[in-house]
Design goal:
- With 232 residues, the chain is an alpha/beta fold.
- The chain has a single domain (6-222), classed as 3-Layer(aba) Sandwich (Rossmann fold), CATH 3.40.50.
- Helices cover 34% and strands 21% of the residues.
- The protein contains six helices and nine strands, in the order ββαβββαβαβαβαβα.
- The protein has helices spanning 29-40, 86-105, 120-132, 151-156, 178-190, 209-222, and strands at residues 6-9, 17-22, 49-54, 58-61, 67-70, 113-118, 138-142, 164-170, 195-200.
- A hairpin with a 5-residue loop joins strand 4 and strand 5 (67-70).
- The radius of gyration is 17 Å and the shape is globular.
- The chain starts with 5 loop residues before the first strand and ends in a 10-residue tail after the last helix.
- The mean pLDDT is 94.
Length: 232
């Protein structure tokens, strides 16, 4: 069983699909859920979909001079023009795979699971899905990017059937530049990933109500309610 702490928003009705929503650097699963709740004035709640918010373990984080932070992986610097810290990405991928496999063991098939996240969480989601879970229903990345020369670009060149990517980015983002997100989207699209990219003109490195409502609609389109068998 995955050792990652997590909080969960349970579905209102019968659980037939799951979303794994990864927080940004320095946050927690509970913190992300509360931020969403404040922004939407309610939980990200579905009739049939469970939303899981894991928390990254604290690790030394190079952009913070090695101070401990709840981050999914280390970075040499916050830039799209440097190597990826593959060792830390790989070790966290294993822990998150354990968490996703727990969902599968409860009876939720991979094609009924979406993996996504905000900022670093979105980057981690893209690594996890496009490397290990190319049969999930979809991937979302909010205010996120992949480094130039990412290992993901090399991996997906060899695959033809890839989950759809839903990407959003604030045009005024001064931490993860809008151009980094757009370049990531363009590169993935050129490699055959079905993508959509949504720009928000007045948004900084943050979530907005409109963005989350658009995400909610996309999740429902990607993971529709299953028809109940007659007689049940």
């Amino acid at each position: 069983m995955s050792a990652l702490q997590r909080c969960v928003t349970a579905p209102v009705g019968r659980h037939t699909a799951s979303v794994v929503f990864l927080h940004g650097s320095g946050d927690t699963g509970q913190g992300l859920r509360e931020w969403i709740k404040q922004t939407l004035k309610q939980d990200l709640l579905f009739q049939h979909i469970k939303v899981v918010y894991p928390t990254a373990p604290a690790r030394p984080y190079t952009p913070m001079m090695g101070a401990l932070s709840t981050v999914w992986f280390d970075r040499y610097k916050i830039s799209n023009n440097c190597p990826e810290h593959l060792e830390s990405i790989e070790s966290m991928s294993q822990e998150l795979r354990d968490l996703i496999n727990e969902e599968v063991k409860t009876g939720i098939p991979k094609h009924r699971i979406i993996i996504g996240g905000f900022s670093m969480g979105g980057a981690m989601a893209m690594h996890l899905a496009y490397k290990y879970y190319q049969d999930v229903a979809g991937v979302f990345a909010l205010s996120s990017f992949l480094n130039k020369g990412s290992v993901i670009y090399k991996i997906i060149k060899e695959n033809s059937s890839l989950p759809e990517l839903f990407q959003c980015h604030g045009a005024l983002d001064q931490l993860v530049f809008h151009s980094w997100g757009k370049e990531t989207n363009t590169a993935l699209l050129s490699l055959g990933v079905p993508t959509s990219f949504h720009s928000f003109p007045n948004l900084y490195h943050e979530l907005s109500k409109t963005e989350l409502e658009n995400l909610r609609s996309w999740i429902l389109k990607t993971l529709p309610e299953e028809a109940t068998a007659s007689g049940n």
